TrEMBL record:
Domain YjeF C-terminal: 250-517
Superkingdom classification of source: Bacteria
UniProt keyword DNA-binding, yes or no: no
Pfam families: Carb_kinase, YjeF_N
Name this protein carries in UniProt: Bifunctional NAD(P)H-hydrate repair enzyme
Its job: Catalyzes the epimerization of the S- and R-forms of NAD(P)HX, a damaged form of NAD(P)H that is a result of enzymatic or heat-dependent hydration. This is a prerequisite for the S-specific NAD(P)H-hydrate dehydratase to allow the repair of both epimers of NAD(P)HX. Catalyzes the dehydration of the S-form of NAD(P)HX at the expense of ADP, which is converted to AMP. Together with NAD(P)HX epimerase, which catalyzes the epimerization of the S- and R-forms, the enzyme allows the repair of both epimers of NAD(P)HX, a damaged form of NAD(P)H that is a result of enzymatic or heat-dependent hydration.
C-alpha cells in the first residue's frame, strides 16, 4: 500500500509542470529491491534471520556462501595451494565450505580454525564436520600456501581487533600473498568502512545478497580489492521489512530526462551561472560549459558588467546577462542556478542565494555560496525549510562541510554526517571526496565511488556544480541531479585516463559519458 502511494505521488509529480521547475520520472521510489541497495551488517543479519524464519535453512545459506566464494576463486585463480583462515563465527563457517569445495575440485587446501568448535553455531559446526580434516598450524599455512582466504570476521565484527587476531591479520598482510576476503576484509567495519584496529588487505572481497557501505566508504574501499557480489538464497521479499536507506550510486538509480521530439531549447531548461569578478571568471565559465554540455537548453552567465565583458572574450554558446538577479528571477524560464564558483564571499552573494531559494528555483550552492553563510548557517537552513529544498543541492568539500555543519565528532560515519546535514539544511547535501556521499532530507543516502584520484584537480568541483545545474535545468529533482551529476563527473574522469587531465577535459568527455548512461 505504501509503495503504491509513493508510486502515485511520483506519477502525480511526473505530470505536474510547475513552470519553475519541471520534474521528470525518477525511478528512485521503486528501488526497494535494487542491487544498488547497501545493507549495514545489522541489516544484513536481519535479512538473514528473516530468511531463515521463512524456512530457508542456515546450513544452506552457508553452503551457498561458500560456493559463491569457491566459484570466484576457481574463475580468477589457477589451481594452487590455498590456505583458509577461519575465525570463531559464521564467517569462519563459510570458510569451512570454501575449503571443502576447493578440495573437492582437486585443489590442495590447508585450513586453520582460530576458534572453538563448541562455540560455533549449528550450521558452522556441521560444515566443520564436513570439512573433517586436520587443522594446519598457522605458520605452515602462511608459509606454504600461494593464496589465502580470509574467513576471520565478517558482518559480526563488533569491536576493535587486538592481540592475537590483530597480529594474525598483520602477518597475513606481510606475506604479500593474494588474499580473498569472505564478505568483508576482516577488521573493516561494514557499516562505516573504518579500520577497527587492524584489517586484511584483500585483492578481492566476495560478499552476499547486497553489498555494504564499508565496501565503498574509505578507508574500507581501499582494503577490499575487487568487490564481487553473489546470491545465496536470502529472499528479496524480506527487504521491505528491513527498509534500508543507503544506496550505491549508479545509472539505475536515476534517469536523465530524454529530449522530447517536439522540444525546443526552452523546454530543456535555462541555467543561470553567477560569474566571479573580472579576474575570477574561470570557475563560473567551467560550470557554465558543463551545464550546457549536460544538456541544459540554454546557459547564461550573469553578474557585474565588467566581469561579463571579460567573459565575452571567452564564450560562444553561453549568453551573458548583465541584469540584476531579482530582475532575472522574474522570468520563470530560468529554472536552475549555479551559485558559488569563484564568486567571492560577500553579503551580496548571500542575498543572491536567499533570493534564489525564495524564488523556488533549482539551484546548486557551491564553495563561496556556502561559505557566505559560515557565520550564520541557520539563516540559510531556515530559508530552505521555508521555501522548500527538493531541488536544492549543496556541494561542500570536507572543510566547507565542517564550517557549515560543525565538526560532528559524535557522528558514526560519513553516512551519518551527511544524513544529519541534509536533515538540518532541508536540502540535498553532496559531501565531496574520493568517496562522495549524497544525502536527501528524508534520510536517503547514496555513496558514489567511481571518482579516480585525478579528479582532485583545480576546477573539478566547478564542473560538478555545472553538471548538476544542467541536470536540474533538464528537470531532474535535486537528489537525482546530485546523484547523476556525481556519477557522470566520476565517469568523465575515468574515461580520460591516468595523467594530465584538467577540468575542461571533463567537460569534453561529457557527451560520451551521457550517451553511455542514457537508458
Ligand atoms: N547473511 C548472510 O549473508 C550470511 C552470512 N554468513 C556469513 O556469516 C558472517 C557473519 O557471521 P557472524 O557469526 O555473525 O559474525 P562473524 O563470523 O563475522 O564474527 C563473529 C565472531 O567473531 C567474534 N568477534 C567479533 N569481533 C571480534 C573482534 N574484534 N575480536 C575478536 N573476536 C571478535 C565474535 O566473538 P564474541 O566474543 O563477540 O562472541 C564472534 O565469535 C557473514 O559475514 C558471512 O560471512 C552465513 O554464512 C550465510 C548467511
Ligand atoms: K572476512
Amino acid at each position: 500500500m505504501k509503495v503504491r502511494r509513493e508510486v502515485l505521488s511520483r506519477l502525480h509529480r511526473l505530470f505536474y509542470d510547475g513552470n519553475r521547475h519541471r520534474e521528470y520520472a525518477s525511478i528512485w521510489a521503486m528501488k526497494t529491491e535494487s542491487l544498488n541497495l547497501l545493507l549495514s551488517p545489522d541489516e544484513m543479519a536481519e535479512a538473514d534471520r528473516l530468511t531463515i524464519q521463512k524456512g530457508v535453512p542456515e546450513f544452506e545459506l552457508m553452503q551457498n556462501a561458500g560456493q559463491v566464494v569457491a566459484d570466484y576463486v576457481r574463475v580468477n585463480f589457477s589451481p594452487c595451494t590455498v590456505g583458509v583462515v577461519c575465525g570463531p563465527g559464521n564467517n569462519g563457517g563459510d570458510g569451512f565450505v570454501v575449503a571443502r569445495l576447493l578440495r573437492d575440485a582437486g585443489w590442495f587446501v590447508k585450513l586453520t580454525f582460530m576458534g572453538a568448535r563448541d562455540r560455533l553455531g549449528e550450521a558452522a559446526r556441521q560444515h566443520l564436520d564436513l570439512w573433517g580434516a586436520e587443522d594446519s598450524p598457522i605458520n605452515d599455512l602462511l608459509d606454504e600456501c600461494d593464496l589465502l582466504i580470509d574467513g576471520l570476521f565478517g558482518a559480526g565484527l563488533d569491536r576493535d581487533v587486538v592481540g592475537t587476531f590483530a597480529e594474525l591479520i598483520k602477518r597475513m598482510n606481510r606475506t604479500r600473498k593474494p588474499i580473498v576476503a569472505i564478505d568483508m576484509p576482516s577488521g573493516i567495519d561494514g557499516a562505516t568502512g573504518a579500520v577497527r584496529g587492524a584489517a586484511i588487505r584483500a585483492v578481492a572481497s566476495v560478499s552476499f545478497f547486497r553489498l555494504k557501505p564499508g565496501h565503498f566508504l574509505l578507508p574500507g574501499k581501499s582494503y577490499c580489492g575487487d568487490v564481487h557480489l553473489g546470491q545465496i538464497g536470502i529472499l528479496d521479499a524480506v527487504l521491505p521489512r528491513i527498509g534500508g536507506k543507503v544506496w550505491h550510486n549508479g545509472p539505475d538509480l536515476w534517469q536523465i530526462p530524454p529530449y522530447e521530439a517536439q522540444g525546443h531549447k526552452y523546454s530543456r531548461g535555462h541555467c543561470l551561472v553567477l560569474s566571479g569578478d573580472a579576474l575570477s571568471g574561470g570557475a563560473a565559465r567551467l560550470s557554465a560549459m558543463a551545464a550546457l554540455r549536460s544538456g541544459a537548453g540554454l546557459v547564461s552567465l550573469f553578474g557585474d558588467k565588467a566581469a561579463l565583458e571579460v567573459q565575452a572574450h571567452h564564450v560562444t554558446e553561453i549568453m551573458l546577462k548583465p541584469a540584476p538577479l531579482e530582475k532575472l528571477l522574474q522570468d520563470e524560464r530560468f529554472n536552475s542556478l549555479v551559485l558559488g564558483p569563484g564568486a567571492g564571499v560577500t553579503n551580496a552573494l548571500r542575498d543572491k542565494v536567499l533570493s534564489t531559494i525564495a524564488a523556488q528555483r533549482g539551484c546548486v550552492l557551491d564553495a563561496d555560496a556556502l561559505m557566505a553563510f559560515e557565520s550564520d548557517p541557520k539563516s540559510l537552513f531556515d530559508h530552505i525549510h521555508r521555501y522548500g529544498g527538493d531541488n536544492i543541492v549543496l556541494t561542500p568539500h570536507g572543510g566547507e562541510f565542517a564550517r557549515l555543519f560543525g565538526k560532528m565528532d559524535e557522528a558514526e560515519s560519513k553516512i551519518e554526517m551527511v544524513r544529519i546535514a541534509a536533515e538540518a539544511s532541508g536540502a540535498q547535501v553532496l559531501l565531496k571526496g574520493a568517496d562522495t556521499v549524497i544525502g536527501a532530507p528524508d534520510g536517503r543516502v547514496v555513496i558514489n565511488s567511481n571518482a579516480p584520484a585525478i579528479l582532485a584537480t583545480a576546477g573539478s568541483g566547478d564542473v560538478l556544480a555545472g553538471i548538476i545545474g544542467g541536470m536540474l535545468a533538464r528537470g531532474m529533482s535535486g537528489i537525482d541531479a546530485a546523484c547523476g551529476g556525481a556519477f557522470i563527473h566520476g565517469a568523465c574522469a575515468q574515461g580520460f585516463g591516468k595523467e594530465g587531465m584538467i577540468a575542461s577535459d571533463l567537460v569534453a568527455k561529457l557527451p560520451e559519458v551521457l550517451m553511455a548512461v542514457d537508458k
